[in-house]
Amino acid sequence: LSHIDTARIPFRDHRWQAGPLLAVEAPVGATERVPNPAMPSDDVGEITWASPETVTAAAAAATPWQATPSERAAVLLKAADLYEAHFGEIFAILHREAGKTLLDAVAEIREAVDFLRYYAARADGAPPRGVFACISPWNFPLAIFTGQIAAALATGNAVLAKPAEQTPVLAWRAAQLLHEAGVPTTALQLLPGAGDVGAALTSCPQVKGVAFTGSTETAQIIHRSIAENLDPGTPLIAETGGLNAMIVDSTALPEQAVRAIVESAFQSAGQRCSALRCLYVQEDIAPHFLEMLTGAMDALRPGQPWELSTDLGPVIDAEAHDGIAAYVEAARKDGRLINQIEVPSEGHFIGPALIRVGGIEDLEREIFGPVLHVATFKATELDRVIDSINATGYGLTFGLQTRIDDRVQHVTERVEAGNLYVNRNQIGAIVGSQPFGGEGLSGTGPKAGGPLYCDRFRHHAHDGPVG
Ligand code: ADP
Questions:
Q1: Ligand 1 interacting residues, C-beta cut-off 6 A
Q2: Residue ranges of the Aldehyde dehydrogenase domain (predicted)?
Q3: What ipTM was reported for this prediction?
Q4: How far apart are CA 351 and CA 120, in angstroms?
Q5: Strand runs (DSSP E) across 249-334, as ranges?
């Protein structure tokens, strides 16, 4: 990548004018500037918001996609090609609107393209449910946004898509490319907005299914809204939070484990639902191991996302910044902060932090940023550690570093988590062969990018008449 001249990234100074993409004329909301979380002086552009009235008009105009399965597949494959053809522009928006580093941005575009191609291959003649609401988060503003929509469209549904309020420009550009590829506007409408637009969608009578990725709390609100307002049996496909742990025993290779931990906890500034939140280190190696870990943290380079040398960018906005900063400050006051590294003072940067805890039960909630908690355990306490990890009620990712084969077997059989990572970082999934998703408070399943995912978007005989 060293040949890339980052000062000449296309669209570095571009201002996008984004807004709802609708099949009908409809009232819209206010227009606001879209900020860059890494640089307060940069405007990414302007966004005109949708309002709850926009949702009503869009829902009335939504029509399931009238095309054969092979036509739908061809359009989604064309969209994948268009994403690749517009790599530079998407890349720039990922940097400037979402604060993604080079590595994160490249991986995310790749994943979005994989989703389009994978779900295209799953288009078949089964009946759609009708209109799907797709509500997506800001932390994977292209990949998750695209994955939900592609699954719903591949199966012939109409989509009302609501991206997160922090990343509307990327969603708008991606939806334009889907339209350019041949998705009719009646089959895909974009409704940029905040929770009020989301709430309008999940209580709108035309909506026959909801795909959601975001916090566990919002998933619970949506679950209630569906129960109160929509047809019985309306599916909610939810991917939510996690309190993810990793166990490092005294046989682990320390360099490998340290590297995996730093990547798992601090890549994307910890803003991944899969990120490592609570590390368990076996007591007898802990002093030396934590010295290595803090050394590796000190070597991290936070900075402007488009600089090649940057390891981690900002957190998404001022609210996220202030909440995480207050949490770390409280730990500092209690004497539990082991290490925190320096960051630029401009922009919403948080220095990666390491906080001592007694165990995962001390984590009251998911801190969605570069904050890692660490606890120690004795060899005899391994099963108790596993029990407390399971007792959080979440079950998204889990990591294990050991060289004992029996222990791999023992631990991975007992830990309740959707994705297990042994002797490697706790990052990523592979569309098609290693789908991603959690259990319990972490989500409803089926896993995104897996063979069962599309099935939830299809209408089944026991669901009653097609909506
Ligand atoms: P995060 O904490 O990651 O921002 P949220 O759950 O708040 O997670 O947001 C995920 C998505 O859910 C966003 O698109 C957000 O606007 C949307 N959302 C927030 N509140 C509601 C709601 N009451 N109903 C539907 N969607 C909502």
A1: 135-137, 162, 164-165, 194-195, 198-199, 202, 214-215, 218, 221-222
A2: 44-455
A3: 0.98
A4: 41
A5: 276-282
